[in-house]
Amino acid sequence: MKRIDGKVHRFAHLIVYGCQMNQSDAERMLGQLKTIGYEPTEEMGEADLILINTCCVRETAEDRVYGKIGEIKHLKRQNPDLIFGITGCMAQKEGEALIKRAPHIDFVLGTNKVHELTRVVREIEAEHGHVVDVELGETELPDDVPVARSGKLSAWIPIMYGCNNFCTYCIVPYVRGRERSRLPEEIVKEVREAVAAGYEEVTLLGQNVNSYGKDHKQADFADLLKMVDEVPGIRRVRFMTSHPKDLSDKVIAAIRDGEHLCEHIHLPVQYGSNRILKAMNRVYTVESYKDLVRRIRAAIPEVSLTTDLIVGFPGETDEDFAQMLDFLREIRYDSAYTFIYSKRSGTPAAKMEDQVPEDVKKARLQQLMDVQNEISLEINTKLLGREVEVMVEGPSKNDAAVWSGRTRTNKIVLFAHDGEQPGDFVTVKITHPQTWVLKGERVH
Ligand code: SAH
Ligand code: SF4
Ligand code: F3S
């Protein structure tokens, strides 16, 4: 709390872990906090309210949160009026146990309670008690929750919540509940508002966007893509994540035909052997996935494909892993996020026998990354001399004279700054392609 020109200012500090859905939820939390008088601050020390929006997809994510919770203890001792809340997936999973473990937490709010934040904060402001509200239920986030967007150019738009897939390693369905799709008109309305507020790019979010609309049947994902593509003023439309089991030819055609629909599909395969895919309950096979990729590439030759891969799933053998490396060399992803399998209690895989030793997992991860990095570099090298459309984002991390932006295919491009502003669309000729970035020169 600060008194500036006689007026009291209250500050909120949000710490956000996890996926884009968590980022998007946090924007709706901050939006609400603003309506009851909190201003965002980067300074944890000056905050009157600290919120950690948590992730529990892997153990490392949880460890990070526990570390942060510990750090905040002394701030609470210095300022007993500080309000400290835990939200998100770990809040959902642990509930009251979090407060038992760390009594300096004031409230724990589950993933389906984002819209209850102001009510809970008000209650604690008035009474200083503890509040735990993690009932999962089937409610969806109401459409009218105010949003304070963190990005300046690109807006996250949630199109559905939850997941029905129950991949055997994954905690998400247990902490996010069943799939619920927003109505198409509500999504289009939010996209229109984002465009009116100056956003040129939107990213449509869901754990599995391809099953959008299967509940309300008012529009499927391909229909929705078309509607968003047609919003006047939109420049780029992205979406994630696509589950391979239900990416239809209709969706592929929509991406091919859409003017603003970016040629990038994040299509997590998770593994490259049928035995492990089956144990993971991914429902597709190596063969059906390859056929899907063939159809995507035939329709959209420029497409970039990215993926998620997990090594060390229970029962993984050298033979499975060799098949996965062969699979990668055959598919040739533009890039991949690689993870070491993390045992999540409550999921079927946690009870499976033959858990893979840590050192084996680490060695396989390294091998996997080496193979993928080589492929990424080969693919990017083919772009040498090519001119690409770049949406300018801003100065690069290491050098203020070098700016960065992205291609439609979601590759990062670096170029010498020459008066461009964030949000400009420029043409860059690629001169030095690398594994992670493309360096180039602006074409005037
Ligand atoms: N709904 C998305 C993303 C879910 S979480 C999808 O289905 O693709 C993001 C990624 O985390 C997953 O794609 C998976 O690769 C990884 N992941 C999920 N659970 C994991 C676990 N227990 N251990 C390691 N990685 C995991
Ligand atoms: Fe997890 Fe599978 Fe759902 Fe993705 S599709 S969130 S990996 S259960
Ligand atoms: Fe993590 Fe929850 Fe997202 S567990 S990955 S924040 S849905």
Give a written overview of the molecule:
It contains 13 helices and 20 strands. The protein is α/β, with parallel strands linked by helices and 444 residues long. The strands form five sheets. Strands 1, 2, 3, 4, 5, 6 and 7 form a seven-stranded mixed β-sheet that branches. Strands 16-17-18-20-19 form a five-stranded mixed barrel. It is globular, with a radius of gyration of 23 Å. The mean pLDDT is 95. The structure holds S-adenosyl-L-homocysteine (SAH), iron/sulfur cluster and FE3-S4 cluster. The site of iron/sulfur cluster has 10 residues, from helix 6.
First-last Cα distance: 50 Å
Uncertain runs:
none
The count of helical stretches stands at 13
What is the correct CATH architecture of the largest domain?
A: Alpha-Beta Horseshoe
> What composes the largest sheet?
7 strands, mixed
Beta-strand content: 15-25%
Rg of Cα set: 23 Å
The rough form would be described as: globular
- Give the total of beta strands: 20
By secondary-structure content and strand pairing, the structural class works out as alpha/beta
CATH superfamily of the largest domain: tm_1862 like domain
Which CATH class of the largest domain?
Alpha Beta
Tell me the helix content.
25-40%
The domain tally reads: 3
Mean pLDDT score: 95
CATH topology of the largest domain: pyruvate-formate lyase- activating enzyme
Bound molecules: S-adenosyl-L-homocysteine, iron/sulfur cluster, FE3-S4 cluster
